[in-house]
């Protein structure tokens, strides 16, 4: 009988031999052959009309069990056919994770079941042989709503969200803009819905939409619910903009006339910013829910997403979430109408690039803040408080910018897939959003300075996004297009500016704010925005509380979700993932930790933290004496105040 050591050695040897044989085998197969195997019988997309129209019906009535029943009728020709489940959805910046929600796939032709196989190298591709004499196939499957807490809770007993990429398959070999579809749904009795799709007919819960193209269908989700409210955001306009609300209870639909006017102001300020629109009509699809996990998802003619259930009914308590509506709405111009060339693909299964997301998302983040302030949805003080937190993040809580560029973070949605990271301050995480925001603030101030306030980034917005009024045909752009438009606004070495801020590690993002006439300072008192952030009733976690002092960020229960790399807590040996149990011998609360940090200021003993990690308690002495640190923006005397100019409402 072999000893455990011998057994272990034998297994290790076997694994090594198997690995060696695999390497040898792969070296004998040309790379092109591997690629050919991966794409076997998957035709590349062609810009040709698909022969015939696909019919898609979704039965969404089984809300009790969270099951959508899908039936498709697809015109086909004899031969090999590949059907795709959409993999890359514009706006998500990564591959979809929802394919495991597809079940029960059955394909029939003339009443006979057709066998299918999943491609060995691409689990999103379903392949089959179409026999002679078959001109159409019937495709049936279910799309399942995930369990509570899953990112794919698409159905509750009060509401549902139909994302067409989750409830349809489409044929490979064609641009999706050339695939015609006729879509219909059956909704629960009495439920109302919102969507960017145009309704052709409706009888009770049976709704048929006007024929469209597959790319437009996927870009047009449906939100439906038992409790529904529609609000006209641009009364009297020939191009309607509606806010369609669904809610867990009727109480969540409560919204005052003053708050309605603020939402209308967002539309007005966006129009004045861009000088054009790119939709036939637009719908804000908002699920006010604690149950439906409808991630905010920008579309060209709608935005669909989940908001705090009491977003409107407790308006004063939801200051931190107010910029999201403007951000997603602005994507109709920035990201949908104008899109980076490497992000545009002919179908939903070609890999997307993201090298220019620092404009796509970075400038949208910038305009989201600005339009929110211009609309009065944020006060100037709230705007500056929110911006101060962003600036402080790049002043103290992003040491990872020493080794990564802003451009490199455009790959993070694929690299990390938006998972929790152990050391986000060092690893970085999609910093093209907020880092890009600060860069575009600096660009705005520079344009104003160079033109003596005659032009601004608003000028760039009109030039770049404001053409082809009414058209929603996507126009792509490259880095050269961005630089050329900036040069057209005002001559400057914009390539050097972008190289310094986007393509070089350690960009001066935190100090760029000073060009606007304001600078970052820290005090021991939270700014107005951060106080609202900490008090928000549904804020899922305190992600900034002690980042700028001892270097910890944590959830409400004390679970540490980030430790600032080389910050005081890090140097004391603290790692992420543990839970703070006690401070200086007292049970942890937010206030206990604040009191301890204050008491240790300007000398005294280190702060003693008891942290439970992997079931074991450890005590750490954090040698920090700087007191509480909260960011604020203050005016720089004798400088031009560009920031107040930037957020002033446009007339």
Key words describing this protein structure:
32 strands, 651 residues, five-stranded mixed beta sheet, Immunoglobulin-like, 27% helix, nine-stranded mixed beta sheet, alpha+beta
Largest sheet: 9 strands, mixed
Helix/sheet category: alpha+beta
CATH topology of the largest domain: Immunoglobulin-like
Any idea what the CATH architecture of the largest domain is? Sandwich
Low-confidence stretches: 1-38
Q: Percentage of helical residues? A: 25-40%
* Approximate strand percentage: 25-35%
- What general outline do the C-alpha atoms trace? globular
Quick one: CATH class of the largest domain? Mainly Beta
Write down the overall mean pLDDT: 91
Question: How many helices?
Answer: 18
**Rg measurement, Å:** 27 Å
Distance between the termini: 88 Å
Number of domains: 3
Could you tell me the number of beta strands? Answer: 32
Characterise the protein shown here.
It is built from 18 helices and 32 strands. It is α+β, with helices and mostly antiparallel strands. The protein folds into 3 domains: 53-330, Immunoglobulin-like, CATH 2.60.40.3650; 346-508, Neutral Protease, domain 2; 549-628, PDZ domain (Pdz3 Domain, Roll), CATH 2.30.42.10. Strands 1, 2, 4, 5, 8, 11, 13, 14 and 15 form a 9-stranded mixed sheet that branches. The longest helix is centred in the N-terminal third of the chain and has 25 residues, at 4-28. The protein starts with a helix and ends with a helix. Residues 1-38 have low confidence and may be disordered.
């Amino acid at each position: 009988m072999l000893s455990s050591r011998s057994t272990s050695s034998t297994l290790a040897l076997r694994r090594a031999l198997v690995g060696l044989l695999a390497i040898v085998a792969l070296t004998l197969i040309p790379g092109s052959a591997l690629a050919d195997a991966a794409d076997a019988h998957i035709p590349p997309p062609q810009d040709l009309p698909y022969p015939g129209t696909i019919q898609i019906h979704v039965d969404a009535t089984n809300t009790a069990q969270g099951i959508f029943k899908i039936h498709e009728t697809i015109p086909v020709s004899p031969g090999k056919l590949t059907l795709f489940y959409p993999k890359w959805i514009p706006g998500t910046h990564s591959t979809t994770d929802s394919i495991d929600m597809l079940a029960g796939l059955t394909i029939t032709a003339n009443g006979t079941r057709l066998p299918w196989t999943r491609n060995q190298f691409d689990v999103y591709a379903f392949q089959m042989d179409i026999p002679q004499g078959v001109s159409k196939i019937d495709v049936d499957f279910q799309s399942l709503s995930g369990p509570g807490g899953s990112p794919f809770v698409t159905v509750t007993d009060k509401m549902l969200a139909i994302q067409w990429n989750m409830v349809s398959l489409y044929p490979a070999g064609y641009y999706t803009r050339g695939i015609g579809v006729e879509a219909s749904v059956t909704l629960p009795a009495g439920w109302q819905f919102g969507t960017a799709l145009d309704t052709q007919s409706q009888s009770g819960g049976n709704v048929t939409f006007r024929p469209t193209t597959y790319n437009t269908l996927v870009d047009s989700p449906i939100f439906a619910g038992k409790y529904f409210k529609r609000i006209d955001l641009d009364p009297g306009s020939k191009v309607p903009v509606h806010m369609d609300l669904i809610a867990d209870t009727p109480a969540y639909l409560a919204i005052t006339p003053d708050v309605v006017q603020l939402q209308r102001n967002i539309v007005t300020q966006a129009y004045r910013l861009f000088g054009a629109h790119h939709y036939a009509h637009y719908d804000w699809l908002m699920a006010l829910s604690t149950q439906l996990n409808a991630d905010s998802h920008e579309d060209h003619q709608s935005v669909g997403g989940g908001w705090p259930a009491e977003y409107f009914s407790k308006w004063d308590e939801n200051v931190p979430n107010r910029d999201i509506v403007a951000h997603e709405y602005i994507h109709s111009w920035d990201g949908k109408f104008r899109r980076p060339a490497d992000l545009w693909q002919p179908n939903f299964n070609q890999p997307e690039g993201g090298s220019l997301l620092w404009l796509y998302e970075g400038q949208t983040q910038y305009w989201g803040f600005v339009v929110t302030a211009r609309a009065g949805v944020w006060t100037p003080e709230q705007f500056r408080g929110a911006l101060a937190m962003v600036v402080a993040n790049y002043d103290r809580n992003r040491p990872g910018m020493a080794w990564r560029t802003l451009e490199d973070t455009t790959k993070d949605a694929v690299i990390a897939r938006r998972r929790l990271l152990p050391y986000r301050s060092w690893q970085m995480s999609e910093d093209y959003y907020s880092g890009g925001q600060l860069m575009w603030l600096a660009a705005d101030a520079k344009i104003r300075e160079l033109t003596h306030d005659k032009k601004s980034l608003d000028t760039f917005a009109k030039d770049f996004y404001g053409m082809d009024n009414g058209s929603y045909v996507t126009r792509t752009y490259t880095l050269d297009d961005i630089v050329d438009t900036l040069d057209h606004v005002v001559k400057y070495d914009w390539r050097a500016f972008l190289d310094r801020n986007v393509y070089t590690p350690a960009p001066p993002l935190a100090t760029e704010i000073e060009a606007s006439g304001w600078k970052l300072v820290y005090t021991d008192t939270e700014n107005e925005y951060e106080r609202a952030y900490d008090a928000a009733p549904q804020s899922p976690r305190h992600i900034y509380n002690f980042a700028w002092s001892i270097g910890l960020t944590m959830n409400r229960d004390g679970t540490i979700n980030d430790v600032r790399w080389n910050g005081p807590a890090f140097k004391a040996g603290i790692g992420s993932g543990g839970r703070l149990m006690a401070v200086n011998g007292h049970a942890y609360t937010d206030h206990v930790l604040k009191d301890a940090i204050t008491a240790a200021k300007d000398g005294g003993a280190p702060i003693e933290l008891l942290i439970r990690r992997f079931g074991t308690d450890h005590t750490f002495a954090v040698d920090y004496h700087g007191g509480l640190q909260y960011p604020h923006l203050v005016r720089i005397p004798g400088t031009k105040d560009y920031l107040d100019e930037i957020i002033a409402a446009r007339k």
